[in-house]
Amino acid sequence: MIENAQTRAVHAGTVTSIPMDVRMGKLFVRATANGVEREFIFDTGSPSIISEELAAELGLEIVASNTGRDANDDPVTMGIAVLDTLDIGTARFEQIPVMVFDFSSLPTGRCVVDGGVIGSELLPHGVWRLDTERGEMTIAPEIGALTPSAGALDLELMQAGYPFPPVISYRLGDVEDRALFDTGSAGFASVFESVMNSRQARSAIVPGSLREGEGSEGESAGGRGPVRSIAHYELSRLELGGHTLEAVPALSRSNPPTLVGAGLLDRYAVTIDFARHNLVLEPRAELATPDRPTGFALAYTGRSVEVVQLFAGTAAAQAGLMLGDEVVSVDGQALDTTESGVCNTVRWLAGTFDAASVSEIVVMRDAEQIALTIRAEGGR
């Protein structure tokens, strides 16, 4: 049913631009589903998903179910419904198959997700330009309605089946493969670890930039991923669609495919044009400042804020921070995990919190509060 759905754009003759907000490493836009306006995450690496709460408000009928695997390779079953209309600015889409999911079942879900996720099955029904420098998403009927700036790079979009994820070729050292342009991934590049096993690929790592550790790769629909070996580093070069990009911050990724994430938007406005099989990169007038590498990461896990990543040899590790530590406060700021305060904590951790600048962290270990001083700048 879902592969044969007759999704269509009915306002295809106009260009519409709407505000696009970047928070917590994700892209947020407002859209109207069956007449009800909500905020949605725009995620090119996901199918469209409606929150269970919104589906109930709209009276959507579950017509089927689907079991797939999330970003952490965990199986997840969701109901399937059909949304009559989705209005994004003046662009209207009809008969959209959507997954239905209870985001409140995730530790951070209710704090982050409102209406749901606008996903990749809509991409063939227009030309989509994402510009975080201007805070704007533009949807056009065809590329001729937009004027790419000077110096724009054309990358070939590879053929992919439903739900039509935007896939591009990449080359790293002697490895040639395909990557998913996934705006749901906050980083610039998340490289499948098997690719990095190539000697030539590893030679692209900038000397001194490699940090290895352990931790979870993040929370997805099936929950937080398991503890694994992880790494972050800088690549001296990464070839995308035949164009070489330099000084690319990258993370390890245990599951395929390699992802090119929302961090690409720190350097370029990106236009997705399925009709011409193109991904167009337009250099920004001003580059955004990328996040600094950090020695640890914190996240709310459903009962407390915990250390979910820790990198060996960094100042955080040398200070005695341990993976799994329950964090009580950071630089004197108590972390509220009560029912009324937890969402403020989640949004602060995913937004303005900067692990690279932390100088003191208080943890609860074996029923005792321990204050740890991280002396080196940057948490390294």
TrEMBL record:
Which stretches make up the PDZ domain?
A: 278-335
Q: Which residues cross the membrane?
A: none
Q: In terms of domain of life, where is this protein from?
A: Bacteria
Classification via SUPFAM superfamilies: PDZ domain-like
Q: Which InterPro entries does UniProt cross-reference here?
A: PDZ, PDZ_sf, Peptidase_aspartic_dom_sf, Retropepsin-like_bacterial
Listed name of the protein: PDZ domain-containing protein
